[in-house]
Amino acid sequence: MPGEGEETKARFDFEAHRRHAVSEYALVRSLYEDFAWVVRDILEDAIERISLKASSIEARAKKFDSFGEKAVTRSDRNPDEPKYTDPMKEVTDLAGVRVLFPKTCGANR
């Protein structure tokens, strides 16, 4: 129990923060998915144009559970607060494309 004159600070509600962040992300995730596929198609065309063979080209938008986990990452400076106070503006890996080449494809030129 705090002594006289001491303020009790409410604990940050990480679960509410996660739910809010994921609900905001749900509104735009399809845009990131579309973006990833467009970039994937551009890369695939460029790779074909220079006569390389990729083993695989994958595109994805960040999954909801992964985004939620990232949203509730604790701050290094104060673990009682989130690292990302506004995850939709601060999380930067919402879409990704990965291209894998066989070791012998000549991609090092």
Strand portion: 5-15%
**Tally of individual domains:** 1
Radius of gyration, CA atoms, in whole angstroms: 21 Å
Element order: H for helix, E for strand: HEHHE
Number of helices: 3
Characterize the overall form. elongated
Major beta sheet, strand line-up: 1-2
Major sheet, described briefly?
2 strands, antiparallel
Mean pLDDT rating: 91
Number of strands: 2
Amount of helix: 40-55%
How far is it from the N-terminal to the C-terminal residue, by CA?
A: 68 Å
The stretches of 5 or more residues where confidence is low (pLDDT under 50) are: none
Assign the structural class, choosing from mainly alpha, mainly beta, alpha/beta, alpha+beta, or little secondary structure. Answer: alpha+beta
Could you characterize the architecture of this molecule?
- This protein is α+β, with helices and mostly antiparallel strands and 109 residues long.
- It is built from three helices and two strands, in the order H-E-H-H-E.
- A two-stranded antiparallel sheet has the order 1-2.
- The protein is elongated and about 60 Å long.
Would you summarize the structure shown here?
The protein has 109 residues and is α+β, with helices and mostly antiparallel strands.
List keywords for this structure.
single chain; 109 residues; alpha+beta; 3 helices; 44% helix; elongated
Secondary structure blueprint with pairings:
Layout: H1 14-49, E1 56-61, H2 64-71, H3 87-90, E2 95-100
Antiparallel strand pairs: 1-2
Helix pairs in contact: 1-2
